[in-house]
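Database export, one record per block. Field names are fixed; values are copied verbatim from the stored entry.
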Amino acid sequence: MGTKRFDLPVAVTLRLQSRSGKVHVVAEPREDVEVEGDRIDALEEDGGATLRIRIGHGGSQLRVRVPAGSDVAVGTQSGSVLMEGEFGKVSVTTMSGHIELDRADEADLRTMSGGVTVAACAGLCRMSSISGKVAGGHLDSAVAQSTSGSIKLERVDAGVKARTVSGSVVVGAGGEGSIAVKTVSGSVHIELPPGTEPRVRFKTMGNVKCGFPEGGDVLVEAMSLSGSIEVVPP
């Protein structure tokens, strides 16, 4: 396993590619990019707007240290992706692995058979998993979906869209944007700030509980075929 360093201008997106193996990216105070892996290859693309780095040996780990605030895109066929520190725009795609992100300005995270976890996102955060759980901490706005896993978003200041087939959905909403939640066979639990008067639309064969008087502060739409729906204070 070798180590190489590359210059990364401020406006350049870093694109990381790995066939298989864990990808670990750390954003920290520094000026260059340090890459540790096997058979490291680097190429400038898009007229110098993108620096693409890939490792050609399947199964080996890719460890990268980048300047804090960098825009980073990660693609891997199989392997977990861990991103520590504070990033700009982040895009991650993996076929079979967990995705974990500390903080970003914007994020688009997609995996087939792993979970997705985001601690904080200052802008729109898109999270998608086919067979894993989706979890978010403090997000500005969110679009989350899972086929057979649960969705839990602790705090979303603005708009929320969440959809799952066979899992529950829990959303802590700030009440500053519309909320749309859909699940087929799971429960829906939405928390709104005390004093909110939401405009609600519910559709379910299960129980419904709304702990707020209806008004026009924020639109809340929730649908569950066979699960309960709750809209309550924290």
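Remark 1: Residues 74 and 105 are 16 Å apart (CA to CA).
Remark 2: The chain has a mean pLDDT of 93.
End of record.
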